[in-house]
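Data availability (excerpt). The following record was deposited with the supplementary files.
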Amino acid sequence: IAQASTSAPLPSTVTVRVTGPHTYGQPSHIEVHSPGRPGVSILVTVVNGSWHSSRSVTTNSGGVGSVNLVIPYSSAVTAHLAGDLQHEDARPQTVSVSIPADFVVSWGRGGARDIHGVVHYTRLSDMRQHVLLNPRLALRMVKVTLQYRVGAKWFSAKPFTVYTDATGYVSTVMRQARRNVLYRINYAFAGDAWNTSATQTSGLFILN
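Predicted structure:
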């Protein structure tokens, strides 16, 4: 009577590496590697709290696979590889990716004119800016600093704090301004559990 022989499954390993992004909205390059496991599907999960996403990546003949993903929040990226008849399950590997926030500043134009890169206003009530902090989350703290130029030097007024609304926006309105003085506004976000810091300074504007 012939007796079937069995052998123990071989161990498996899986690694994951994430590159980028340098700016918000750009894709992160995720590369997974499992030596000796060509043509297998590796599950990549991306998680931050209640937000999550996943993709399956198939390895090439060298056991390497990759995918480009736009990830909105700083997250834990984990590679999962199941075993088969010849291989054990691989121990999942996790790496962290930091995603920067991003400001988009738009003008409240009203009767304003753009002359050589400087927005000219004739009415104080029109001097307003609408600022989007990406990704769009409510109640994110933004430090606002009004800056003005005297001669060749820039000076800063006392900063104040505002919070994004439910759509990720904040708005600033000039309550007073001196005529024929150049102004600009700096917006700064210190970062939180969702994204790393961001800062943006508006273009120049003036009240004629």
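Summary of structural features: The radius of gyration is 26 Å.
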